[in-house]
Amino acid sequence: MERSAQPIVRDPNPGLLRGLLHGAYDLVWLAALVLLAPWFGLRAAFDARFRRLSRERLALDTPRLAPRRRVLIHGVSVGEVKGAAPLVRALEEHDPELDIVICTTTATGLEVARQTFPTRTIVRFPIDLSWCVRRFLRAIAPSTVVLIELEIWPNFLRECNRLGAPVAVVNGRITAQSFDRYHWFRQTLPQFNRISLFCVQLEEYAERFRRLGGAPERVLVTGNMKADGLLREPTPAHRAKVAELRELLSIDDARPTLVAGSTHEPEESWFVLACRQSAPAARLVVVPRHPPRAGEVQRALSALGAPPQLLTELRRTRTPADPGRPAVVDTIGELEAIYALADVVFVGGSLIPHGGQNMLEPAAHSRAVLYGPHVDNFRQEAALLESEGAALRVSGREELAQALASLSTDAERRERMARAGAAAVQRQKGATALTLRALADRCLPPRGVGR
Predict the structure, then answer these.
(1) How far is CA 437 from CA 87, 98, 232, 318, 381, in A?
(2) Is residue 451 over pLDDT 80?
(3) What's the CA gap between 90 and 98, in Å, rounded?
(4) Where are the beta strands (DSSP E) in 205-295?
(5) Inter-helix orientation angle 294-303/267-278, to 10°
(6) Where in the chain are the domains?
(7) Does the pLDDT value for residue 449 go beyond 70?
(8) What is the 8-class DSSP label of residue 446?
(9) N or C: more exposed end of the chain, with fewer CB within 10 A?
(10) Contact 202, 16 (CB under 8 A)
């Protein structure tokens, strides 16, 4: 481990100019809220869920917690929340008396957080208006703040410094596009010199953080923690869910099961069309990235002449699915169990310029993996799997159909890819231990003392 640096617990950017800058930033937030207030008010009047979301984002419903040694771990959505799991387990083992609060922004992130951390306090991240951030942090009273991957906001960082809570970015990564945007504003906001520690996945990312203002002694390459969370012994609950889904979705060894995971519009239609062309006898399962899109996906597939069945409806009726119709998973927290049932997995967000989704998840379940050309957000993971012969990158819909045709009929090739993928993920393990060591050395509150 490189030489240590003291945590940042005071505002490193004081002065009138910085105060005016944050004041102007607050005015932009206020202007946006005033302009959108009529729409917000109308929607809140008729939508209880939106009303609750609005109050949470304004930090009006944040629970006030008793002061104690506490770590606030923030991940913006599902991927980051799941990526935090190995670190939460490591912190629990390292210091059982440490209170851990999980924070996220999206509705799906909250649902996954509640499933993944049922005994922990789960809160919604506030909008970055200084008054809301201040109210939020005073209610939670964190000793340390941990941000998964990046997700930084100017007022949030400033108020953490003023509160005396060091901020760490863990499993950090920053794409070339994000770096360019941050670099343009590096002298103003969001001020990377407010962060005490950067634990990042790659040296490439480390260099970008240094150039943005992260002092070299604060930037450490610790690896990708997601690998530590993927290769765990299946729990009884997981095995039970896999068995239930196998029966409910009518999955058996008589036909290959082809899964499209974390898809975005219109990838579901493209996937089903490719399968109809290349593997008409296969069992098809589609898992949209955002379950509220399930109705939209159902209509799109029905328009193709392939009316799907929704998992919620199958569960309600307790009727096994028709294997000749695609199944659409319209619930949260099922993806890992679905991957465990697949023969081939296409990972979505990659046939469109979205940046891809995490292809290590199906690889860790010993599945042959496919994805499209747009994997900018997961370049490291894609390069790892491809170098080991565990995944295929297709250029578009035509190549997807060809790959599905080949893999659906070649069990031996699927098995080779599956073994290679699981082995590749296994070799990435260890990042969580390095991250925990850095946090304990630099940011976590000492044992046996108050906040």
Answers:
(1) 11, 15, 21, 48, 24
(2) no
(3) 11
(4) 219-221, 257-263, 283-288
(5) 40
(6) 16-230+430-442, 236-426
(7) no
(8) P
(9) N
(10) no
**Whose structure tokens read 């260099």?**
207
Q: Which residue(s) pair with 345 in the sheet?
A: 259, 369
Q: How much is the pTM?
A: 0.89
Locus of tokens 């190549």: 399
> To 10 degrees, what angle do helices 411-426 and 379-387 make?
120
The token duo for 84 is 């935090």
Which pLDDT tens digit goes with each residue over 160-218?
A: 999 999 999 999 999 888 899 888 887 777 789 999 999 999 999 999 999 998 889 99
> Could you tell me which of 258, 324, 327 has the C-alpha nearest to residue 288?
327
- Rounded to whole angstroms, the Cα distance separating 126 from 276 reads 45
CA angle (290, 63, 9) in 5-degree steps: 95
Q: What whole-number percentage of the chain has pLDDT above 90?
A: 82
Class of domain 236-426: alpha beta
Q: What sign for the dihedral angle of Cα 197, 201, 207, 208?
A: negative
**What is the edge-to-edge ordering of all strands in the sheet holding 144-148?**
121-124, 99-104, 70-74, 144-148, 167-172, 197-200, 219-221
Cα–Cα distance measured from residue 286 to residue 366, given in angstroms and rounded to the nearest whole number: 19
SS3 content of the chain, % helix, strand, coil (to 5): 50, 15, 35
d(CA 144, CA 386): 38
Run of H or E including 37: helix 16-46
Which tokens in the block code for residue 411? 């069990």
Q: What is the CATH number of domain 16-230+430-442?
A: 3.40.50.11720
Sequence-distant (≥ 6) Cβ neighbours of residue 357 within 8 angstroms = 79, 261, 262, 289, 347, 348, 349, 350, 378
- Between the alpha carbon of residue 384 and those of residues 224, 344, 407, the distances in Å are 12, 18, 20
439 touches 144 (CB < 8 A): yes
Identical fold for domains 16-230+430-442 and 236-426, yes or no, is yes
pLDDT digits (tens, 9 = 90+) for 77-129: 998 999 999 999 999 999 999 999 999 999 999 999 999 999 999 999 999 99
Whether the CB-CB separation of 441 and 217 falls below 8 Å is answered with no
Is the CA virtual torsion 414, 416, 417, 419 positive or negative? Answer: positive
Phi then psi dihedrals of residue 148, to 5 deg: -85, 120
Strand order from edge to edge, sheet including 283-288: 309-310, 327-328, 283-288, 257-263, 344-347, 368-371, 391-393
